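Customer escalation, tier 2.

The customer says the design service returned an amino acid string that "doesn't look like it belongs to this structure." They asked us to rerun it and document both sides in this ticket. The original structure tokens are below, unchanged.
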């Protein structure tokens, strides 16, 4: 089925016959399908080097290619100033539709990472702070990358790193102690407990700007590391447990489960040992009682790894974390997904790690994503105006529920609620993943939840429409026809086979937006096909093929939506 590889081989053989060597062959799909199914500018690249006319060289290459064509390629033409266009045959498209149908859930998978183990770390919320909308972005990107890697044959180990010690915890505890009388009792709801912890963190963050409170908070931070104050540790345990239970509720809604939960309290001592080792080797140096890494030597910037109080910073804990990952799992690769505001930080941390544990650093990569905001703009948990991840999910579900009620297709409230949850998550996932890596995302409720055009619910609706049409046809006695006698020359037939290429590229570049773009185009192609062709028509000789094509579309959409972490409601 890999016709792209076949064309690359034919093209390479043709270039060799013309004594043209050392050429990187690239194939692209023309934007306009009337220009073929694949195109290459190899003649234009080679002509410049060979000192030839590009159009004339393209004709020579095309003539050589025609000597090696098989049944999958109908013709080869030269266009423009030297492009070579390949047109696939009707028999290829007919075979591809059948192949997709029988491949089902395996269509799109490859073996590029077979026998590899890859750890993907993502989401990473901090106890004592609300899991905010930005964490939903990290979760969406990380989960999709995990599934792309799985589609490439690797075993994926999902990891979540949560900051349960550090200045933010001390600020929250300071606020909790100041507001002790307001602390919800044990039998209160989780929502009340999380609200209390969040408001305490905001109060502690504001107070830290003043010298007296700063000293108190710094002492609390030290006491947490040393576990020297039993009463403080009781309050710490109460807040930590409430936060983690709250996170689990959201993970369940997101459909994400992790193999490993790492905590800063576990990695701090490991990191301090690495820093101590680095001090002896001259990787780190002391500066005003603190321990720093002078990144300027490597074109980076200086960062503190141990404070003047002897406390490890995030940098040191990350050293311990990344070394620990390889101790317990020995992955072939470790992928870390965070907001892109940490990109420069990761460059420094990984450089320091490479000088001490190069075997870990060279197998660790960082992927940064943009921020998730509402049309109102950027939010800050420190200032208390952040939108919680749970709140965003709930609000999206409310809008989705309103739309499902208006549709009137569900028999009871339970069905409506279940569908609205699936649709709401699709809206968020799609909005996050449609952007290229690193770009900020604005989540607009109405636009993101629309059933028309560029949205997750639109993809879901296209699938359910296909499922409904297929069922109607089968109820009328139509059976799948894979005889290869039919070809309708639709855009849908000419786009479905491309899915494995899209998956492969998205995995190699860690860029799920390629899958989003492809699925959106494919859904549009199906809806055009649906409008122009009656599928449930037992009197039409081609109905069996149209049913086959519809089911193949379903297979592609289902696999693609799975990669994006988007579920499919039974009806919409």
């Amino acid at each position: 089925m890999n016709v792209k590889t076949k064309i690359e081989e034919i093209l390479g053989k043709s270039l060799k016959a013309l004594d043209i060597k050392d050429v990187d062959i690239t194939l692209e799909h023309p934007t306009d399908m009337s220009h073929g199914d694949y195109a290459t500018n190899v003649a234009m690249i080679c002509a410049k080097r060979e000192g030839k006319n590009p159009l004339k060289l393209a004709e020579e290459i095309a003539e050589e290619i025609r000597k090696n064509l098989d049944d999958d390629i109908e013709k080869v033409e030269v266009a423009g100033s030297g492009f070579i266009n390949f047109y696939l045959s009707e028999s290829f498209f007919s075979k591809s539709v059948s192949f997709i149908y029988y491949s089902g859930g395996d269509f799109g998978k490859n073996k590029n990472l077979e026998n590899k183990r890859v750890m993907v770390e993502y989401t990473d919320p901090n106890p004592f702070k609300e899991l905010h909308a930005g964490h939903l972005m990290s979760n969406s990107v990380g989960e999709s990358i995990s599934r792309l890697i799985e589609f490439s044959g690797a075993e994926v180990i999902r990891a979540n790193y949560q900051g349960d010690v550090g200045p933010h915890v001390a600020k929250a505890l300071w606020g909790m102690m100041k507001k002790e009388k307001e602390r919800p009792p044990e039998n209160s709801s989780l929502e009340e407990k999380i609200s209390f912890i969040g408001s305490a963190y905001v109060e502690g963050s504001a107070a830290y700007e003043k010298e007296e409170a700063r000293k108190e908070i710094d002492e609390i931070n030290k006491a947490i590391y040393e576990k020297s104050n039993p009463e403080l540790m009781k309050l710490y345990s109460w807040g930590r447990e409430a936060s983690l239970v709250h996170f689990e509720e959201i993970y369940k809604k997101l459909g994400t489960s992790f193999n490993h939960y790492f905590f800063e309290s576990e990695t701090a001592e490991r990191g301090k040992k690495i820093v101590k080792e680095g001090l002896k080797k001259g990787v780190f140096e002391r500066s005003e009682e603190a321990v720093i890494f002078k990144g300027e030597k490597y074109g980076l910037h200086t960062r503190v790894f141990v404070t003047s109080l002897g406390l490890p910073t995030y940098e040191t804990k990350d050293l311990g974390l990344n070394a620990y990952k390889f101790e317990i799992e020995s992955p072939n690769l470790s992928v870390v997904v965070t907001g892109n505001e940490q990109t420069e930080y990761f460059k420094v941390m990984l450089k320091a790690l490479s000088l001490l544990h190069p075997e870990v650093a060279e197998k660790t990569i960082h992927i940064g994503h943009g921020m998730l905001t509402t049309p109102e703009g950027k939010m800050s948990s420190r200032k208390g105006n952040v939108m919680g991840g749970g709140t965003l999910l709930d609000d999206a579900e409310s809008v989705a529920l309103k739309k499902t009620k208006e549709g009137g297709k569900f028999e009871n409230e339970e069905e409506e609620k279940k569908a609205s949850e699936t649709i709401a998550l699709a809206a968020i996932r799609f909005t996050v993943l449609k952007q290229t890596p690193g770009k900020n995302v604005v989540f607009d409720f109405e636009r993101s939840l629309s059933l028309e055009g560029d949205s997750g619910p639109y993809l879901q609706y296209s699938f359910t429409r296909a499922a409904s049409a297929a069922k109607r046809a089968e109820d009328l006695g139509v059976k799948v026809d894979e005889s290869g006698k039919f070809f309708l020359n639709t855009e849908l037939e000419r786009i479905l086979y491309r899915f494995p290429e899209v998956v492969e590229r998205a995995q190699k570049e860690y860029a799920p937006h390629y899958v989003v773009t492809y699925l959106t185009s494919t859904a549009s192609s199906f809806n055009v096909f649906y409008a122009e062709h009656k599928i449930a028509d037992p009197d039409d000789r081609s109905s069996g093929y149209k049913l086959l094509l519809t089911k193949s579309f379903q297979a592609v959409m289902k696999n693609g939506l799975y990669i994006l972490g988007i579920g499919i409601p039974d009806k919409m």
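Tier 2 assessment: The sequence is consistent with the input. Residues 379-385 have pLDDT under 50 and may be disordered. The domain at 3-88 is CATH 3.30.1360.70 (Gyrase A; domain 2). Sent an explanation to the customer and offered a walkthrough call.
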